[in-house]
Amino acid sequence: xxxxxxxxxxxxxSIPDNSNAISSVVNAKMTRFDIETxxxxxxxxxxxxxxxxxxxxxSRSSFRVLTYNLWCHRVVGGRNSAKRLNTLSTWLLNxxxxxxxxxxxxxxxxxxxxxxxNYGSGQRANLIKRVQSKYPFSYTADAPWFGVQDSxxxxxxxxxxxxxxxxxxxxxxxxxxxxxxxYMCCKITITNKDLxxxxxHLNAGMQTSxxxxxxxxxxINDHITTCHAGHRVILCGDLNIEYGSTxxxxx
Length: 251
Hints:
CATH architecture: 4-Layer Sandwich
Order of helices and strands: EEEEEEEHEHHEEEEEHEH
Structural class: alpha+beta
Helix content: 10-25%
CATH topology: Deoxyribonuclease I, Chain A
């Protein structure tokens, strides 16, 4: 992140994958923005109101970012994943829904093609195809060389994006062996300046995995400081950090 303060007000309303999920968004300098969350149980029978507006450049009207966990796990839970993806695409295409510049999705998992014949790839491809009229550019997770499914991260964009890099986490808990979690980043140009957008999904396990998540943050930060020190950076995703916890306050 550049030294000048380009960030203005952030307001987020979202439904996480569970009631204790992501409660913050951070940038490269660890500036925190609180997120209003509601549990899946509360919202099971009604459509989510999602509204994230991030003003990055005051000479420009606004830059809108949406981050959302779709809970399309191919091994544990993830019920009605095709319906969930279809509901999201229908909502995004609705004329009453605002257009976002960048959409960062988590848990759009695709299985290892060597183990489970690419299960989930068709659902992901259908989502990308359905929203192409508004979001013609996308960046998908690499197929894993180990584990049952990929990172589940997906970036959709209304602007041309340049995929930069994606990397699996080097540290993770045993419960995450079935996934290939990590982070992915892409570059877009806004008002002649490069903007780096990073999408990630940190280790699950709440407080028991706090030390692992801290090391995953270090891995992401090492990449930012090495490759994007002079760029504006947005880091978003499902951080699996409980709001108000010691881990949250230390983040």
